[in-house]
Amino acid sequence: MLADNAIVVVADGSSARIFKNTGHGSISLELLETVNPHSLTHEAGMPGHSQTEQSPKDRHESSFIGQLMHKLNALALAHALPSEVVIVADPHSLGHMRPLYHPELQRRITREVHKTMVKASQHDLAVSLARP
């Protein structure tokens, strides 16, 4: 089960949605924020894993994931995240995210779901999260 006030981050390489569970004893997700490359401010020195042999699409995705992780790490360090954070992302994106987790964020991550669900409805997402 998902704790009350848990944060759920649903992401891929180009966008993310951040939800809060408001379902007192059940899963009811409230959208807090939609994140895309234009909504994040790129800070020098905080890109994702960058490799010169990446395609432009891969560089774009790595940059977005790096910026998203910078945002989540900053929230964790500011104690602005609850003690339960769930990350839902496709395996490729999740592979880029993991090395960028700050230990403070990693302590709060209680579950990772390896699925592409960034465009899924809130209902479908809640059903998926209800499964063990």
In short:
The chain has 132 residues and is of the alpha/beta class. Helix content is 33%, strand content 22%. It has helices at 56-77, 91-97, 103-108, 122-130; strands at residues 7-11, 16-21, 29-35, 85-89, 109-114.
- Total beta strands: 5
Main sheet record: 5 strands, mixed
Low-confidence stretches: 42-51
What string, H for helix and E for strand, traces the elements in order? EEEHEHHEH
The structure class reads alpha/beta
CA radius of gyration: 14 Å
Mean of all residue-level pLDDT scores: 88
Shape designation:
globular
Number of alpha- plus pi-helical segments: 4
Q: In what order do the strands lie side by side in the largest sheet?
A: 3-2-1-4-5
Distance linking N and C termini: 8 Å
How much strand content do the residues show?
15-25%
Helix content: 25-40%
Characterize the structure shown.
By secondary structure, the protein is α/β, with parallel strands linked by helices. The protein contains 4 helices and 5 strands. Strands 3-2-1-4-5 form a 5-stranded mixed sheet. Strand 2 and strand 3 form a beta hairpin. The longest helix is centred in the middle third of the chain and has 22 residues, at 56-77. Residues 42-51 have low confidence and may be disordered.
Helix-strand layout with pairing:
Blueprint: E1 7-11, E2 16-21, E3 29-35, H1 56-77, E4 85-89, H2 91-97, H3 103-108, E5 109-114, H4 122-130
Parallel strand pairs: 1-4, 4-5
Antiparallel strand pairs: 1-2, 2-3
Descriptive key words:
five-stranded mixed β-sheet; alpha/beta; globular; 132 residues; 22% strand
